[in-house]
Structures are given as C-alpha cells and as structure tokens.
Amino acid sequence: MPPDEAASRSEGPLLRGLNQDLPMVRCRIRELMTAAVTVFAVLLSPGAQGQGTPPSLQWQPIAANTTFETGDTWVSNGQRFRLYGVQSCLRETAYTGPDGRKHDCGDASLRMLIALVRTWNPRCSSVARSPRRDATFVVCYAVAATSAGAQQVELGTALIASGFAFAALDENGRPVSLAYEVAEKTAHSSNAGLWAAPDLANPNAILLNALSKARSAPCADPLSSVCGAR
C-alpha cells in the first residue's frame, strides 16, 4: 500500500481530503519556512530556554501507520506521543478563514502537523512521560530544504512559528518553553497562520479559563488533583 494511502486510512474520515489539499499546504509551508528557521535560531542561542541541539541517540521517525489525533498528539504502534511544550488549536472551536467562512481550528492545526510530518519525515526523541495523560512527550527534528539551503528545523518551533500551534502553558499560565513563547509572539505579530483570523479561539485562554472554573467549583472529591491544587 502506498505510504500516502496508508496514512490517509489511519487518519480517519475527517482528514480524507488532505491529499487534495496537500499541494496548497506544502506551498504554505515553503512561505513560512523563513520565519520558522529564524525563530529556530533562538533555540540554539546561548542561554535559550527550551530544546537545544538534539542529541545523536534514540531518535526515531514517526511510523507510517501513525494515527494523528490532534495538532500536537499522535498514536504510533499503540503508544501515544505529544509534542513537548506545544498546544494545538482545540477541536470544535471555530475561526473565520480568508474565504470568510467558519472552519474548525483544531482541524487546521491537525492538517498542518500532518503536512509537516509528511514533507519533512522528522525524527523524534522522548523527553518525559506523563502517566496521567497516557502520553510520552517528544521533541522532533528534521533537515528541511529552504531558500537558504538545507536547515535543521524543530517541529514544535515550525508549527508555532507558522501560526498553526501555540506555546503550551502550565497550570499557572506560564509558558512551558520560553523559546516557544518567542516563536508564538513572532507569529502573532506577523499575523501568521491562524493569527490572521479576527476571531481566533486561543486554546490556552480556553484551557486556563476551564481550569479556573474547575478550581472555583465545589469539590466533589477532596482528594482529586484539582481540589488539591487550590
């Protein structure tokens, strides 16, 4: 079975149209690569907070039979992986596209992740394990062709710099990675990707608001993690 066909089957009915959209998305990737590579340099600068130059061991490609769940999470060979420090847009939140129509924001993040993985074939390495989320956090790197020649790029930075993902925040509203925060601010200031929408539903704002409401609600279970965090 051709790789594209196998990937299309593993992604589910929602993404069956990606093969038709892929040429357009790849064009968008090329347009955004200059910004992504520029911001990626921050990761390699002295004192940068976040992922530096990747180590040489234990780096694996994303499997061909991968099922992509969101714009930051996928399942390969029965194991769930999530990009460290990256927050994708949420499913069933809408934004207004350049065509004036409403689109699913989570689907836009998901399509960009799949397009980058297919285009770059990045290699990933685990950095942490979260039993509560049943996920292994990873960082992923690839060598991509750009207008400046072959460049090493980091997948999380590219997604955030393109405006199709966001810098994840902890439960106190602080960025997990300061380097990713820089990438997000750069994307925001240039109206890249989803930031161009006048009604973007920022996932971090939604998640922090939900957490705040959960903390202020009466505790049904005093031993729960939310109650214990008060």
Question: What can you see in these coordinates?
Answer:
Strand 8 and strand 9 form a beta hairpin. It is built from 7 helices and 11 strands. Helix 2 (18-44) packs across helix 3 and helix 2 crosses helix 4. Strands 1, 2, 3, 4, 8, 9 and 10 form a 7-stranded mixed β-sheet that branches. Strands 5-11 form a two-stranded antiparallel sheet. 39% of the residues lie in helices and 22% in strands. The protein has helices at residues 3-11, 18-44, 105-120, 155-161, 178-189, 203-216, 225-228; strands at residues 60-61, 67-68, 73-76, 79-83, 86-88, 94-96, 102-104, 123-130, 135-146, 149-154, 165-167. The N and C termini lie far apart (52 Å). The chain has a single domain (3-228), classed as OB fold (Dihydrolipoamide Acetyltransferase, E2P) (Beta Barrel), CATH 2.40.50.90. The protein is α+β, with helices and mostly antiparallel strands.
How many domains comprise the coordinates?
1
In DSSP terms (H or I, runs of 4 or more residues), the helix count works out at 7
Sheet of most strands: 7 strands, mixed
User: Percent range for helical residues?
Assistant: 25-40%
Shape: globular
Quantity of strands, as a count: 11
Q: Beta-strand percentage?
A: 15-25%
Q: What is the residue-mean pLDDT, rounded to a whole number?
A: 78
Topology:
Layout: H1 3-11, H2 18-44, E1 60-61, E2 67-68, E3 73-76, E4 79-83, E5 86-88, E6 94-96, E7 102-104, H3 105-120, E8 123-130, E9 135-146, E10 149-154, H4 155-161, E11 165-167, H5 178-189, H6 203-216, H7 225-228
Helix pairs in contact: 2-3, 2-4, 2-5, 4-5
